Amino acid sequence: MTYLFPIAACVSACVTACITAGGVWLVRGSTAVPAALWSAAACLALAAEMGARASDGLIDPAAAAAARLAVVSLSLCPAMSLLGAKRPQQNVWQLIVATLAVVLVMPAVSARLVRPGSMPDVHMLERCFLPLLVLVGWLNFAGTRRAAAATCVAAGQLMLMRGFLPGVVTTTSSPTGDAIDAAAAGLILIGATWAAVQALASAARRNRPATGTTTPREETAAAFIDPPFLALRETLGAAWSLRIAERFDTVAAARGWPCRLRFGGLVSDGNPADTHWHRDALRAFRALVRRFVTDAWLARHGWRDAAAGGLHAGQEPS
């Protein structure tokens, strides 16, 4: 029974690592790939910590606290990676994310190298910063269809970092603490599984053969813009989606297009028969999202040939 909870947490973390590794394939072609890789690395680190605890490899309280701080630091990298997910700086941004992880884990490194055997001395500023970063990551998806999954992951992260929260004394593992760790790993597994199921379900719907005749809705600019935009919203979160919508609306207002790109998709209040602005709107949208995704990603997420959708062949975006 002593090792049951650490073993359960280790298994959950390993399964989550496999799911997040599969997430690299699901988000291929987008700038969210580094975030998926960070997620897999964080899950593997948690699995290693739980495995070491189950095999009595972390009996030393200071070593256990240092390992936990390293896991917590890595767990914050995926959300931070998404905040810089725009070409061409997304690769350089990963160095900033790695630097953040190093800075957060420095109290553990200092304790191990300078004061061997002592507990990591985590400053109050960092204790406040850790949950704030979790909140930022959660808010990025709170308004999307990934809200439930993001909530589970955020709750699991807070449970794992409980020893480094403001006003909490860093302690070693205990039967109660091991049970909390197992529950945290389980919540993260549930969140990752739910997000993967949603992504696979969306892919299945996109690949489903179309039936029936073309409706007026399917001939509008929204029919071309909404599928990839909503897919991008679920992939990168609200921060970049709102930024894309803001830039698109600025162009639309300057050129007098009777449309605005909202968080839920394109909204048009003009004459449905007036399609003279569609070509430029599609070009503007594609130019914006190409900073985040490839043409293959767009095609995979519903970016259709304009001529096939009922618009004039001359209006096909390039």
Reconstruct the topology from this structure.
Layout: H1 4-26, H2 33-54, H3 61-75, H4 77-82, H5 90-113, H6 124-142, H7 147-160, H8 175-207, H9 221-236, H10 238-255, E1 259-262, E2 265-268, H11 278-289, H12 295-300
Antiparallel strand pairs: 1-2
Structural write-up:
With 318 residues, the protein is an all-alpha fold. It folds into 2 domains: 4-206; 216-315. The chain is built from 12 helices and 2 strands. Strands 1-2 form a two-stranded antiparallel ribbon. The protein starts with a helix and ends in an 18-residue tail after the last helix. The relative contact order is 0.11.
Cα end-to-end separation: 62 Å
Shape: elongated
Give the uncertain stretches in residue-range form.
Answer: 213-218, 306-318
Query: What share of the residues lie within helices?
Result: 55-70%
Instruction: Report mean pLDDT, rounded to a whole number.
Output: 87
Q: How many distinct folded domains?
A: 2
Radius of gyration over alpha carbons? 23 Å
Order of the strands making up the biggest sheet: 1-2
Total strand count, please? Answer: 2
Number of continuous helical runs: 12
Order of helices and strands: HHHHHHHHHHEEHH
Keywords:
318 residues, disordered C terminus, two-stranded antiparallel ribbon, mainly alpha, single chain, 2 domains
In short:
This protein is mainly alpha-helical. It is 65% helix and 3% strand.
